[in-house]
Design goal:
Elements: E1 3-7, E2 10-12, E3 18-25, E4 34-39, E5 45-51, E6 57-59, E7 67-72, E8 77-82, E9 91-97, E10 101-102, E11 106-110
Length: 112
């Protein structure tokens, strides 16, 4: 059974950092293109970061220079390191791949 499970969300002050995790079972993450998406209340779910199976990374403009996507092959876990967080980063964050589908999401709230 293929499954993605996110964790690491929470409440953080503006300017703070969080690291989200996406633990995978049933697939080898490094073999696939993997994405992080986010969905804010009342808005569409949008991609914020992608890591291709060749290791290349892509970022949505608003998170470039602040977010970093990576995969730990030994742990078969994908991460999203988020620095210099802003209130507009508040959303539910999801990991995704066309093969594995969607995780359940983890809430990130940036507020003072």
């Amino acid at each position: 059974q293929v499954q993605l499970v996110e964790s690491g969300g929470g409440l953080v002050q503006p300017g703070g950092s969080l690291r989200l995790s996406c633990a995978a079972s049933g697939i080898i993450l490094r073999d696939y293109t993997m994405d992080w998406y986010r969905q804010a209340p009342g808005k569409e779910r949008d991609m914020v970061a992608r890591i291709a199976n060749n290791g290349r990374t892509f970022y949505e403009d608003s998170v470039k220079g602040r977010f970093t996507i990576s995969i730990d092959n030994a742990k078969n876990t994908m991460y999203l390191q988020m620095n210099s967080l802003k209130p507009e980063d508040t959303a539910v964050y999801y990991c995704h791949s066309p093969i594995a589908g969607w995780g359940q999401g983890t809430q990130v709230t940036v507020s003072s």
